[in-house]
Amino acid sequence: xxxxxxxxxxxxxxxxxxxxxxxxxxxxxxxxxxxxxxxxxxxxxxxxxxxxxxxxxxxxxxxxxxxxxxxxxxxxxxxx
Amino acid sequence: xxxxxxxxxxxxxxxxxxxxxxxxxxxxxxxxxxxxxxxxxxxxxxxxxxxxxxxxxxxxxxxxxxxxxxxxxxxxxxxxxxxxxxxxxxxxxxxxxxxxxxxxxxxxxxxxxxxxxxxxxxxxxxxxxxxxxxxxxxxxxxxxxxxxxxxxxxxxxxxxxxxxxxxxxxxxxxxxxxxxxxxxxxxxxxxxxxxxxxxxxxxxxx
Lengths: 80, 206
Prior knowledge:
The complex is a heterodimer.
Chain A: H1 3-15, H2 21-26, H3 34-49, H4 62-71, H5 74-77
Helix pairs in contact in A: 1-3
Chain B: E1 3-5, E2 8-10, H1 16-30, H2 34-56, H3 59-76, H4 87-112, H5 137-151, H6 155-166, H7 171-178, H8 182-201
Antiparallel strand pairs in B: 1-2
């Protein structure tokens, strides 16, 4: 596997939360490739997050909206 | 704006106009605008709840996760940086991480109690929750676009990427679940996610 492929693999595993702490700590890119890896990682993360649309459509219960909005109401916010 | 990938044309699942609207709502939320926060809830709650439910297989737990994510969005919206991604990916990442943490805690508790591990290790095709008739038109369109993008991947890559996103399994557990060597699974995830990026963002492979 090339250095580039290895970096791509680590970026893919990282955005999916599959790197263990040791692998994550060992993942140090040469400074001249850091920006490219950041861009790659961001693109991969945006793409992976679109998979959320594949979860079977489920309507959140109406009480959840009320619960969330009540939690940030002026009266409750000080308790957060 | 639609873009082409090979001979196919896709709508843009990552729609820059939508992302800008999300960003505007998040920025207003950071200034304490509750109406903007309610707008973010209305735009994000369906995919976030569906994702949490798919990972957890428990509607009540999914509800708690999504509640906590929105409270975090409210409290930390001022810290959001566009450099790290879009508001949607921030919210999805938080939801997924929290749901997976719960799955892993659940499994640790089960191990401690010496119970048999679940057969599907958290990977539930059916979602286990209160599936509706398919969601709003926007939800259906975006889901269809992502599904078509995923369908451009070879089946083994689709399966590896979906399992990695929704299961909460470790690399090794994914390999065991798919009965493939770890290196093969990592390569499938790499190729699959890169291809998905190319299709969804319209970025040609160099």
